[in-house]
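Protein in question quoted for reference:
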Amino acid sequence: MPLTRREFMAVSAAVAFGTASAGVVLAESRSKLKIKAVAFDAFPIFDSGPVFALADALFPGKGAELGNEWRARQFEYAWLRVAARHYVDFWQVTDDALVFSAAKLRLDLPEVKRAKLMNAYLALKTWPDVVPSLGALKQAGFRLALLSNLTQTMLDADIETAGLKGIFEQVLSTDRAKTFKPDPQAYQLGIDALGLKREEILFAAHAGWDAAGAKLFGYPTFWVNRQKLPMEQLGAIPDGEGDSLSHLVKYLE
């Protein structure tokens, strides 16, 4: 599909400055899409950074290494559980990943430290741009939902902590389908709960793999690429990309 002049100028500007973090449209123009709702992964909304800052406080000099190992194992274990058809929810996956990571790094993990790290996932706060951006989307008439691998308990606790109660029409844990994204059954939850066609729901992803998974499922997709990472090579390009929710708001104008 040929780019419009506006799209061409946006892409040209991104290339000139060496970044695609200005909310640049990467595929279809938003004007071609009939978006009625936005379904968010949890992490464009909630900042998990304090969890890993706590790891550094509890294990000085080793916290960053523990955090990186823990984060990688979380998602590896989730996907392996799905592939092996031995499902446990994301809370259990996260705990298992923490225990393994500490053992791999030969760190003593007493129950008090283990509980502190796990419970930090129940008290996540939002990124600074979240509240005004969600307000702008609601004001514009978009229906809002969460669609996350986190358990319902984790999502509900974080919504309470962040003061977002009542903002989301649907709060959907993939635990309802006993699977994890990027399994298509996980993305289907958004369609079933919102009662819309898949082309009417924009999925806002935090991770590049999640953006690719949602796009392969058939959702219009915006990658909230806060870490400014390169595109995943998974055969799917999100419709838009930016490094904040303000870029998503601009994309949907």
Observations:
- The first strand starts at residue 37 and ends at 40.
- Confidence is low (pLDDT under 50) at residues 1-23.
- The domain at 49-122 is CATH 1.10.150.240 (DNA polymerase; domain 1).
- The chain is about 45% helix and 10% strand.
